[in-house]
Amino acid sequence: MGDATAAMSGPSGAKPRRRLSGRNIMVYGILIVMCMYYILPLWVMVMTSLKGMPEIRLGNIFAPPVEITFQPWVKAWSEACTGLNCDGLSRGFWNSVQILIPSVFLSIAVASVNGYALVNWRFKGSDLFFTILIFGSFIPYQVMLYPIVILLREMGLYGGLWGLVLVHTVFGMPILTLLFRNYFSSIPEELFKAARVDGAGFWGIYFRIMMPMSLPIFVVAMILQVTGIWNDFLFGVVFTKPDVYPMTVQLNNIVNSVQGVKEYNVNMAATMLTGLVPLVIYFISGKLFVRGIAAGAVKG
Amino acid sequence: MASTVRGNRWIRNLNSKIAALPMVITTMVVFVGGTIWTVVYSFTNSKLLPREEFVGFAQYERLWSNSRWLQSIENLAVYGIFALIFTIVVGFVLAVLMDQKIRYEDAFRTIMLYPFALSFIVTGLVWQWILNPEFGLQSIVRSMGWDNFVFDPLYNPDIVMYGLLIAGLWQGTGFIMCIMLAGLRGIDEDIWKATRVDGIPTWKTYIVVIIPMMRPVFITVLVLVTAGIIKLYDLVVAQTSGGPGLASQVPAMYVYDYLFTAQNLGQGLAASTMMLVSVLVVLIPWAYLEFGGKKHG
């Protein structure tokens, strides 16, 4: 509450101002100009994807379509070619879904238990592992790519969906563990102690007390992971084979393919399709999204 | 006696230890083990497969005499310096504007932040289209009467990194604005009252009082942005594929190509070790400032 009032009253203070002061015109002017820069690509993407190729060749990319056509969307979804495969982006979409669901579930399960153990069941060295984990998140992925290829090959998971799921779980761990650790440490310790006295064990307390009390943070973690994993490109291209490529990789292959005539409308429809999942999550989740990414920012 | 005490200690909290196993394996095997493996094998002349044939610093000598690598470093330096300056300045200015008790704050934030939800691939492909000289910005300005207007960053080796920069800033500045705004909101209202009583103008308060107070936020932003810059990869792949020529190559691309397509492992590992070194150069002073101080305080 204290926070909210401080935020509402803002820095510029008590003196009431006329609505159209020069200062206000400048503030809103700059904000609106910047917003045009941010909105422009989305606008261009949608408009281009709704035009036919003849109109694109003649017209300007900012203009709305004279004649709306959904053909590019259909083509991007079910006919666009990558190499010899011409079954469209739908394959990449379903691959991404198949990667996404187990990755999100597994990474959140592992990280939440980690966070819980770090707060309530500290053991010798637990803080050390946590520190390494956080510092590990700053190591460029390129450093660990090849060793992971070897590990996955040894486990027989290289090239398939499950190998990628494992990789996402591992690299989601630092940030998610931090997120859960911080949240769990805000839950009063008395609750934990009372449950211990009543004879609840490690898993009992986790499932019956910690988890039900922390649903918001699970939602934040989910938002973070769904967008992060959906948007991943590097891991997809390194750890999977072409027939299980996630959507981002397939999209890049479709748009940047050198063969054939460039169909810009299909390309933009495909780009839009790939961006749609995180965009929908972003617009639905609103402030939770901000919380999720801000949690990622306040490390240390 | 000693052994039973020891046994007890191991068995106590056994469940929690089992639960922490994934974390222990991740840190020790992947993060620590993987990094050490990469550094060690960067001193070998592994080609297609890793081989324990140590050649000292030969891979590094080859790396630093490879024109493609040197070009990658130069490109990243150009991109990095401008990305840092612009992200911090734009992020801060936007945050200050957002903090002026404006109306529709939520709408403005939603618009500024949505690009951050999109992947670098989507970002790169959209801006590739907007910067397309035949149909995009250039052709529109030309059709408005400036027939000689030239703006084709993706086809001009001299300015291609700025083309990437426009896209990179589009994707990331909204996020930095949010962090900065949170920092501004965290500043005690009394500070503002005090400066107002003293008659210090608002702009001066920001520069003299607020920015120094937000030092931790700026440092966090600096570390985040720098780590992001060093990892720069997807955006380049999508927007320019490293071209025209080698004009927008970046170190991460060099690593990928040598590890997975050129089949010259030792060289790729040496390059990735250099990426690690550059992160450490940023990270160690930061960790020292951030955690070194706390121990004393």
Provide a concise account of the structure shown:
The complex is a heterodimer of chains A (300) and B (297). Chain A has helices at 2-9, 22-49, 53-58, 71-78, 90-120, 126-136, 141-155, 161-184, 189-197, 202-213, 215-231, 234-239, 247-255, 264-285, 287-297.
Describe, in plain words, how this protein is organized in 3D.
The complex is a heterodimer of chains A (300) and B (297). Helix content of chain A is 72%, strand content 0%. With 300 residues, chain A is an all-alpha fold. Chain A folds into 2 domains: 15-69, no CATH class; 90-297, MetI-like (MetI-like fold, Orthogonal Bundle), CATH 1.10.3720.10. In chain A, 44% of the residues are buried. Chain B has 297 residues and is mostly helical. Chain B folds into 2 domains: 1-40, no CATH class; 57-296, MetI-like fold (Orthogonal Bundle), CATH 1.10.3720. Chain B is built from 15 helices and no strands. Chains A and B meet through α1, α2, α5, α6 and α7 of A and α2, α3, α5, α6 and α7 of B.
